[in-house]
Every structure is written in C-alpha cells, then in structure tokens.
Fold each of these.
Amino acid sequence: MILPKSFYERDPAVVARELLGNILVVNDNELLKGKIVETEAYYGLSDPASRAFKGKTKLSRWMWEDAGSTFVYMVHSYWLFNIITERKGKPSGVLIRAVEPLEGIDYMVKRRGTDDIKNLTSGPGKLTISFNINGDDNGLKVYEKDSRIFIEKGEDKNFRIATSKRIGVREDLQEHLRFFVEGNKFVSR
C-alpha cells in the first residue's frame, strides 16, 4: 500500500518520525527499494536550517508545493531528497538521510561504484546516487503509484527510534529533529 497524501499533511517532525520503517521505491528501469532508517524535519520560514528560511527562490520554490511532493536540491555536489509536508503554500519538509537497501542492490552497487553494502545508502548523498535521484525529480508526488518515486507502507515497525540534533546544521532549533532507527547499520552516523 502506498502512503496516502494525508500522511504528509502533518507537522514535519511527526512525518519524519513516522516515515521510519516505510519503503522508498524508485522505478529507474529497475525497481529499487529501501527501508527508511533516518530522517530530519525542517520547518520552513521559521527554521534557519531550512532552504525556505530566506523566502521563495528559484531553488526553494518546490517547498511551497503540495504535501507529498518531492524537493531535490544540491549541496557540496550531492543531491538531497526531501518530501514536502503540511500544505501547499506552507514550506516544510523531511530530508530522507538514509535507507536500508532491500531491492535492486546490484544496480545500486554499480551506481555507487562500491560493493560495500553498508556504504551504499548510509547518508543523503549516497542514497541519491544509489537510487539515481536528482534535480529532474522535483515536484513528483510520492503518494501516486505511477510516480517514478513513491513511498510504500513498511511491514516491520519493530524497532526503537532515537533522536538527535540535525547533522551539519550550524544554526539549529531547540528540538531534536533528526530521527533514526536505533542500532541500524545504515544510519549515517
């Protein structure tokens, strides 16, 4: 079952926490799947670490789209994959930081140029390389089955969730907005 649009029409921290254990699916001439094991929430205009903090720009305009839309942008030569939350016109979202590879692993190995499975998707840039996610994927709807990228409901929710401050953020909010599956070897750090 694909997670419905209503799943994303909530507070970004709630969505970030509840995305853990669900399945990222990318159809890239081969079906690629990974269990989401690490996320970060971003609060848009009130969050100095958000791409939307300084207002709507050519780069950040995707954050003003409907909940469940994709926002992919580049940092330090790596694409980062986000899903918009709440509602159209209110920029907030969730960064998918890491997944546990489930299907299409041989394809991911070729794309990343490593056969170290633990190193395939254990970070946001590694994830986008392995799953071939890039700027052309902006604005996709992850709640639509015919989308190149969508999120399926995960079966295994038997894990503990840990939290921390977000990674690589100079000016962070008070709350812990990074969520990850405790003890999972695919978490970035």
Note: The beta strands are 23-27, 31-42, 70-75, 78-84, 93-103, 149-152, 161-164, 178-181.
Amino acid sequence: MITLLKGGQIYAPSPLGKKDILIAGKQIDSVAEPGTIHLQGIPFEEIDVSGKIITPGFIDSHVHILGGGGEGGPATRTPEIKVEDIIASGVTTVIGCLGTDSVTRHMESLYAKAKGLEAEGISTYIFSGSYEIPTMSLTGSIRRDLVLIDKVIGAGEVAISDHRSSQPSFRDFCRLAAECRVGGMLGGKAGILHCHVGDGEQKLEMISRLINETEIPPSQIIPTHCNRNPDLLEEAITFNKRGGTIDFTAGADSDNGKGGLISISEAISKCIEKKACLDHITVSSDGNGSMPVFDEKGNLIGLTVADQKNLLSHFRCLIDRNILEIDKALKIFTLNPACCYALRNKGEISPGNDADINIFDSRFSLIHAFSMGKKVMENKKLLIKGTFSQ
C-alpha cells in the first residue's frame, strides 16, 4: 500500500515545517516539500492533512500487555491489554513486561501476547524477568534470551527498594546487570536492566553502587517510577546527570499527580530546574499494571489499573502549561525511548524508518494514525480491533 500525506505540519520530532510524506509498505519512503512528490501509473491513497500536526507514534516502554497485579489475591489480577486501546492512546510501539506475579504469569505467555499484538497491528518488544532475582527467562538465562529471542531487549521489571522485591543482594544485582551488558552486546541490542523502584528508603542506592563499584556504564540501567516521591526524584536527577536514563510513570491525573505520583509536568519542571539531560528522560504508562496502595504496615488498602491513555494527557499538559516546546516534549515520548532502548527505525519521521505516525489537530486530539504503514485510525475511528473484540 502506498499513501501520500499532503501538507501536514511535521514534528519529526524536530520541527520540519509543512511537508508531504510518502509511505510505501511499512516504511517512510520520503519527506519532501509540498507538491514535489509525483506518482504515476501506480495505485495510491492521497490524504489531505493540511492544518494537522504530524508526529511519530508514541513508544510506551513499560506496559503490562499480559496484565499485572495480583497483590490482593487472584481476583486482583489485571486484564490483558487490547490493541485498540493501544492505538487510541497514540502508541504504536510497546515494551511488555511482567511485574509482581511470576507464578500465574509466564515468560512464554508474555512472548505469545507480544506476537499476538504484532499480528494485530503494532510493534512489540519484551523484557525477560519479573520483580525477582534470579530472573525468569525463556532460554535459561537473560544473556541467552538477549542473543536468541528476537523480541527480548533487556531484563525487567526487576524490583528494588520495595517490600515486594526479592530483596536481592548487591552481588546478585551486579551479576544481572552484567548479563544484560554482555547479552546485549552479543545480541546487538541495548540489553537494558529495567528497574522498578519502590517506596523504600534505599531508593537508587543499589544502582549508584553499581555505577561506582563496577565498570558497567549508567546507560545500562533504566529505573522507572522515578516520580514516585520527591526524594526519589532528586536521586533520579543525579543519576541522569551522570549519564543514566530515567523513566517517569504517567499517573491518572495530569495536573496534580493524583495517586501519589508527582505529575509529569512537575517532574519535568524539576528536571529543567536542575539542568538534567532531557534526552535521557522517558515517560511510560505502566499500562494495565496494578496501581496498589499500601498502608504503613505494607497492607493492601486500594487497587486501580493503570491506563495507557494517560500518556496523551500528560503530553498535552507539558505543552499547554508551556513547560516544553512541542518538539522537546515529543522527544520524551518518541525518539528518547527509541534511542535509549536501541529500537531501530523507530521514534522519528525520517526516510527508511517505520511508518508509525500520529496525526493530530491543533489541540493534539488524535485524528488519524498509522502503524507500520497501515492506517489504524481514521477521523478518530479505530480501524483495527483485537481478534476477539466485539
């Protein structure tokens, strides 16, 4: 299928101005001045996107595609994600993970779910493992998974500073980071160790020791939920300024961080104030994971499900509140995760890259979307559904 998008305002995420985009098959063939692409003798679809804003599809680097939760017993296991919910959130690429539960959730099921979502229309990757160390894997080790399994790009989400973690020793943590490092090198992947950071007093102490006491570089570790509380945010900014990438979780309220999280706007503002490197910041949804609330004794007192649609509301908030310009805000949701996780041909509107494209109106309401060159949303109407969706 060949599609010509005519006259849109392109943020690639860098601002390119008004351009035409030619999509051929699954890839972007060219980005050119308006009216300079001429097609003859072949069937194609032409779409007028003048007055619209064209961006890369969002990359959500922390999604419980298989469901998560379970902290309150079997009835609190959260449901699997649906492809239509992913597309409606402006997301065209996800990285799936397991969480607390590695008993009723399995790596084989996670891999199968990722393959299923890919067949339904989006790009997928996964982390091997769950909260505990030693980690689960598909082949017997994280290193082998990284080399032999196409979709595995790292280990995670491994819990630290949390009463739900396996309370790993520093030695075991270092060994896992080393497995990610070497496995990534052998497999031609980033080999990221993706760490869930809880509310404990240790915060990023384990990661700081790793950087101080070993030869493993800060770029090998990406801690998530770094906007959990002010003290953790401060440590995360310090880690970022040493060369590490930090991930913020898009909570339920884009203005005041409802649910205990510091809002994305406030967290990014603090990063700007402290002169953190914005290229090493990502935002993920924790989509379809549980958002448990515990009392001071560690008892579960509340539970909700994280919604992937929070990504779009937080993105808009960064722009509406003049915290970041459009291109800089967009990078956090597109090019930054593509670079940090070494996702080739993702995160940028450029010839040769995958045709993952969002088309917004002037208020950043999603109008059309393409995933791997296929039109998946048109005039706000979803064009694809999950295999068993009604």
Note: The chain has two domains: 2-55+346-382, 57-340.
Amino acid sequence: MIIDFHTHVLPPRVKEDRSRYVERDNVFAQIYSGDKVKIATTEDILASMDREEVDVSVVVNYGWSTHQLCVETNDYILESVARYPKRLVGFCSISSYDSESAILEVERCARGGARGLGELRPDIQSSRDAGKGNLEGLSRLLREHGLILLTHSSEPVGHVYPGKGMATPQLLYEFIQVFGDLPVVCAHWGGGLPFYTLMPEVRKAMRNVYFDTAISPFLYRPEIYLEVSRLVGADRILFGSDYPVISPGRILREIDTCGLTAEDRQLIVSDNARRLLHL
C-alpha cells in the first residue's frame, strides 16, 4: 500500500474562478494568485492516484485567514472522504486557534470524519501573537478527538516561492512543544528542523514529530532522504507529494533511487502512515 500523506483538493468552483477567492482570503492570494499554480478537484486526484499507483491520499486543507473559507473547503473535503472512504483521508483546518467558531469547527469536522487538522500556518495564524495559552486549548481538543496535527514549514534561507511563509524551525520548535505527546507532522521536511535534532533538547521535543517530503525536489537534493533518516530515523518520515503542485510519481522515483534500504522505503511510503492513521 502506498500512502501519499500530503495532497490538496479544492471545490470545482474555486478551480473555475480563483479570482473571487484571491480577493477574499490573504493566504489563498499568497498561494494561488498566479494562474500557473495548479488547482485540483477530488476527481483530479483520484485520476492521478490511479496513474501513479497511489492507494490512499491524505487530503489536507490550508490555514486560510478567513473562517468562511475554512468551512467551505472543509465541507468539500468531508464530502469527498465520505464518497471515497477507501481512497481518501481528510484533514480539515481552522483560521484561528482559540475562537469559539474555530473550536466548534474542529468538533464538527471530527464528527464528520476528519482524521487530522492541517495544514496549519503558525506563522500567520493567531498563535504567534496570542501566545501559548490558546494552543493548549487546541491541544486538549485534538487529544479528545484523536486528531493528528499537520503544520506548514518554511526554510529560513534559500529561494522564495508562493506560500513559503515564515514557519521556520525556531517558530516550529516553540509551536510543537505545546502539543506534548500528540502526533505532529511538519510538512516540507520541517523547513530543515531535523538538522537541529543534533541538539539534545530539540531531539527530546521532537519525540512525536514526523516530517513529510512534500515538494522535496523543489527544495533539496535527493540526499535529503538518507540524511534525515540518519538524523531522526526512517520511521519518522512520511511520503507526501503536495499534489497538484508536483506529481506523486516524481517523489516516489526519488525515493526509489536515493539509496534507501527496502525496509526504510517501506516505512516511508506506507508503514509509518498506516500506523499513524490506524489503517
């Protein structure tokens, strides 16, 4: 079984007219203001999965800046998962971490079949200004519903790209510590956070943290797979593509040719995700 832990879909109406949403939501504008940035629907991802021989995809939302867009896109993800429960797993999102509307939305999505919360944007959303207290409430809520947290991550150096943001290792380190024993997935290799696990206190804080490979070919050379396996263990890496930005097959080909053992490859493309998702 091959599981892609990081993909995105949006409703057909968004794909047909993105300009309306660029005007409505700052985060959407950061990512999708350019016409060349691809948008996929549920039907698109299912066709891609069949082509690339991906068995299950985790469909994650975005950390939108408006509650209304979170609800609208959460609805689409929940509907998609209900239609294709053997192919899709849904993660929903919220625009803030402590508002009553956000708490109610997490509860609604959990009842609707969501398995996680994300892709959150701690660099943009309220935790940065409101401090640690609001995250502790969110942590209790995630624990109560058995939800996984997936956060965006940003490299503190290097080239700029749409949606890169400032969720750098320093911010992620502070963010993650609030969640204790909850499973946290840092997208995009955690913006380089695995390299700081050579520091004992960081390694201790990362005990329940996983790192996905989303858009890896756009960020790092293929040696990243072996290096992060050495630093944190292959049992903490999740194959994720960031479809439709990049095809799952491109990343799978890197995984197949980068020098991983068969056992480590199996962990990354399947077993780690199966364990987290109880599949």
Note: DSSP finds 14 helices and eight strands in the chain.
Amino acid sequence: MKRSSNRSSPESVRAKRRARGGWRAAPGVAIVAALAAVLTACTAPGGVPADDPRSTQIPALEEFHTQELAWEDCSDYAITAQDEKYFPLAPEAECARMQVPLDYADPAGDTASVAVVRVPARGESQGSLFFNPGGPGGAGLLGTIGASSLMTESAVTESFDLIGFDPRGVGATEPAIDCKLTDGSAEGADLLARIGSPIPTLTEDDTKELADRCAEGSGGMEALANVGTRTTAKDMDVLRAVLGEDKLNFLGQSYGTRLGAIYAEEFPENVRTMILDGAFDPSLGSQERLLASYGGFQGSFEDLAAFCATQADCPLGTDPSGWTAALQGILQPLVDNPVPAGDTELNFDAGLGGVLASFYSPDLWPLAIEGLREVQQGRGDQLLQLATGIAGISDEGQSSNMTDASIAINCVDEDLLDADELAQLREDTFAQAPIMDSGTAADESTRDKCADFPVTGELGIPYAQDIEGLPSTLVISLTGDAATPYGGAVDLAKTLGSTLLTVEGEGHTVIGKGVSACADAIAATYLLDLELPENAPELTCAVNQ
C-alpha cells in the first residue's frame, strides 16, 4: 500500500487543532453546523479462504480487505478536549487506523487513514454493529463512545461489538479537512462570516478563496475531491471486510441515514440489518431539502414558544401571533450590535444558531429561553454555549473540524445552485421560516459557496432508487423532528421498501438515547433476531413519559 504523502501522527494532528484554541465562535459557525449532508474466486490471494467475506471483493482492493488492524488504547486518537473528556467513559474501547485508497478510481495511488473505534460487546459477541452518529462532519469515534455509554443496559451492546469511525475528512481520520476558517486569522473569520449565514451572498473571489483554503489545509484538491458520502460508504465496506463480517449491521442517525442509504445502494448484497433514525429524504435536491429543514425549524420554534408561554416572564410573550416578531426583535439587533459573551461576542448568526440548537431536544428549550432573556439584558453567554456545543467546540474554545468538514462533504455531495435558484431559496426561506431572517437586504452578487470545489453533485439526487436484493430495513422518525422532518422518513421508507417506525414526540433521533423504550425494544429485536412486529410495515411508538 502506498502511504499518503500527508499522513501525520495523532500528536501532530492534535497539536494542529489546538493551535486554534483561542478561537471561540466566529460568526456563522453555528449556522453552518446547525444546518446543520459504495468477484468471486475459488481461493483468494494471500491465503484467504473462499468462504471468508474478504474473498468476494474487487481484486484491486484485496490488499485493503486483508489488512490487519493494530488495536490500541484510544488516547492518542483524542483530537479535542471533548475527546479527552469522554473517551475514558469507555475504557474498554480500542482504536486503530485502517488504510483505504484516497481515490477508489486509483487504488494503487495514495491512501487515506481512517480512524476506527471498537467497543467490545459486554457479553458473547455475535458480530459488529456499525454506528454513525450524524453530520456531515460529526466525529464517529466520539459519537460511538458516547452512544456506548448510554447503552450499558441494552441487549444490543450485550451482543454486538459497537464499531464507529471518523468519516472521510473528519476528526482523527487523515487527511482531515481544514479550510482555515477557524485558525484565528481575520481573513478566515471574515470568510466564515460570509458563508455562514442561512442564505449567503458570495462573489467569485469568495468561492475561490474557500476552495483554495480547503485544499491548502487538507492535502490538496485530490483529498478535497474524495470526502463525499459515496467514498465514505466504500470505506465502510472495506471496514466490514477487514473485520471479517460477511454482512453489515448498521445504525445511522441523522446524516448517518444518508450514509446508510448510499451503502444500501452500493452494496445491497452486503446488508444484514440497517436502522436509519432521523432520516434524510433521498428525493430532495439541495434547494428542497434546505427549505424542508427551515420549515421544520419554524415549526419547532413555535413549539418552543408555546412552552415558553407557560413559563413566567417568557421573553417571547404569550400571543402566538407575536412570537416570531418577538424573536426577531431580540436577535436582529445583534447584526449591528453584538452583545458580550464570555471573551467574545454573540452576533445574529450565533444567536440564531443557539436557538436552532435547542430544537434538537425539548430538554434544551429552557436553556434557549434563558439565553433569550440574557440577550435582552445585554449578554449572550447562554446562546453562545448552545451554539458552540452543536458546532463541536469545547468549553475551552477548542474546536473539532466539524464545520470545515461539513462544508466540504456537502459541497462534494450536493448539486450546485445557480444565482436564480439561490435568490428564490432566500425568498422562500424567509417566507417559510421568518425566524431565519436577519432583517438585512440581500446582496445582488450571489454564487454557490461550492462553485470552485473540484467535485460537486457526486451524490446524485434522487439516490438509493430501485435497489434490488436489499433485505428488510427499519426507518425511524419522531413526528416533531425539526432537523430531519418526518416526511423525509416516509419518503426514505418508501424508497427502500423499509418498515417505518413513527415515534410521536419532539426531538431529533431516538435509538439508544432513552427517548422511547418501545422503539428501543423494536430496534433491538430487529438487530438481534431479524424480526419486526406483525403490524409492520407501519409501526407507532410514543416517547417515554
């Protein structure tokens, strides 16, 4: 295997990330994060038996399928302070690096190094359960270790090794995406501010600067071109083979549902079980998907406001007809007059990002309400804390590369929008979700931020269509999911021929989080026994009371 020329040690990667330590919340980062997007032989080479799962792979990838992972303690894979804090929650976890082609069209060329974590089953293992916690740009190592700590009583973690990995360009996987937006430079912060608004208005100079910064910090244009979801799905299949798994068991949440659907499209014959929780709609193009999400945000805001109206001194008031105007009255002045927040400031984008972050769980609503009260009093600490939490920034101000990776992955995956489409998107967004409106006039210059990326539109929308040979899969959604609206789950289930499990309640994603014991039980039985209730393909559960 040819080593990638830009491979570095975990220590050097960690030091590079920590060089950003003084940056806390550049304008726009919270918005970016919140919108926060895959041959048989009698005897295989290398002495692998013909019945080994690795013997059925593409010959050019054989050396990757037969590699042995060197499992070790995960401490050297901790990139951020959050990693260092939460990795010890699973002392039994082991980490390793897996080599994969940087470009699957050139498997003899440079390699990428994928960071992998394994949390062994608490009992006798019956195989591996692959897990992706969401994104794009979400750290798989941290998410998997966190999930294992929440599932200590689950029959699933009793019987399955939990497997996670940092996807292409993310976290400890190398090369990691670094667009130099959060490097402490004024130029990076200014560019992030311009691209970070819900509907950015950009020039050709802006988009060229973004592509150049991302390429320069990430190992070149070739590395940047190979961070898309289809490439990550291929990595996941290599990992399946390396672990000796004949079939894949997969739990994907949020963006992980897109990754899972693409894997199902690329490798349907390699799927045993697949749970897609908090679903991306496979039929929506970039414009439609953003509008659906923004509309979901508006609905979730109204739910938050209704809760607020039951509390004393609600900063949004008690009249439903005035809730949006009240929020705008609190946040829009931050465009020109940010308020102090810790050792930085809270502007409109970060303030809105904090409110949006609270839509991921009703448990966060009181924090958002308190944050709005603080802004009325001239402080932005609480909303900043919510915003930076979803953006992958620790309390110490140290950031993961979630924002940069999210931008790059979405650029490679999704179709470009032209100027007319962007103008229409802005108009439609503020009509459907007026909470997103900063109150500023649109700039006539408008260009898709991804216009100068080396690859765009790689995903192909609609995707995962007319798949043959895919076994039974399970799609799950909360009815009040703002980030990935319920309608997307309905469409994904129809597309894959899946059983749809509807969970009535608010929030984003269900399994393993203590949200619904009913849903957890159905998921466990499906994973362990390949069984679904008799009233499938449509099931309903409630959230825990």
Note: The first strand starts at residue 94 and ends at 101.
